[in-house]
Amino acid sequence: MNIRRIGAAAAAVSLALGLSACGSDDGGDGGNQLKVGIKFDQPGLGLKEGNEYTGFDVDVARYIAEKLGTAEDDIEWIQAPSAQRETLLETGQVDMIVATYSITDSRKEKVGFAGPYFIAGQDLLVRADDDSITGPDSLDGKRLCSVTGSTSAQTVKEQVPGVNLQEFGTYSECVSALVSNAVDALTTDDTILAGYASQDQYQGQLKVVGAPFTEERYGVGIAKGDTEKCEQINEAIREMISDGSWDTAVEENLGAAGFTPGEGNPPEPDACA
């Protein structure tokens, strides 16, 4: 009697496990799905239009995902606003973040990083026919636009007290103001500037000055302490660089602005710890 009960219980467990596997979200592959945090509102880097996701960060994420064994259709794209990136990783809402995410010591106290996969720098966007602005030193008396509360704007303000800083709610508003001659320049990371300048409606009208004056090391955010995933992602980044896919992604997403990656690119990923 006891033997029959044990056998029945074992059969029930076996059946439950089988049904669970058949009904799993990943089709039973056990880990092929990947939740990836990106920006949804940065042209050339991470942009969501309908069901389409484009940009350099998106291409980097797709390449890494493929090397991790995840097909593009199995990627779930999650919006990752700057202020929420650490929380998204700490709470497990995403598996990794590729969203102009600079590697810093303070962030490494909460999350892990693979990479960097790109070295960006703060720069200036100006009208294509304006040769008077060549860097921060030439901004005295000029109208400089940035986003409200941006550290980029404050950096320039500290360097050039005579600049006329005008803060808008979004970078898109700054770009529109630049095109309409309401401001003289826009400042943030050179990649973000190139992304806006590469948009169809602005091609030929704007240019990145090309004199970066800070260093931003874009990394892939992951859960703190996940050394194995860090090493896998670093290897994917190295392969993307070596097989030419990295150059192609830069050109296709940012090349229309005449953008050339600055010193240190393409980078060698840091050792995982």
Describe the SSE topology.
Blueprint: H1 2-22, E1 34-38, E2 41-42, E3 46-49, E4 52-54, H2 56-67, E5 75-79, H3 85-90, E6 96-97, H4 105-108, E7 112-120, E8 122-127, E9 143-147, H5 151-159, E10 164-168, H6 171-179, E11 185-189, H7 190-197, E12 206-208, E13 216-222, H8 227-242, H9 245-254
Parallel strand pairs: 1-5, 1-6, 9-10, 9-11
Antiparallel strand pairs: 2-3, 3-4, 7-13, 8-11, 8-12
Helix pairs in contact: 2-8
Order of adjacent strands in the largest pleated sheet: 10-9-11-8-12
SS content category? alpha/beta
**Which stretches are low in confidence, meaning pLDDT under 50 for 5 or more residues running?**
1-30
Task: Tell me the strand percentage band.
Answer: 15-25%
What portion of residues is helical?
Answer: 25-40%
By DSSP (H or I, 4+ residues per run), the number of helices equals 9
The domain tally reads: 2
| CATH level 3 topology of the largest domain | D-Maltodextrin-Binding Protein, domain 2
Structural shape? globular
Note the main sheet.
5 strands, mixed
Average pLDDT value? 89
Q: Return the CATH class of the largest domain.
A: Alpha Beta
CATH architecture of the largest domain: 3-Layer(aba) Sandwich
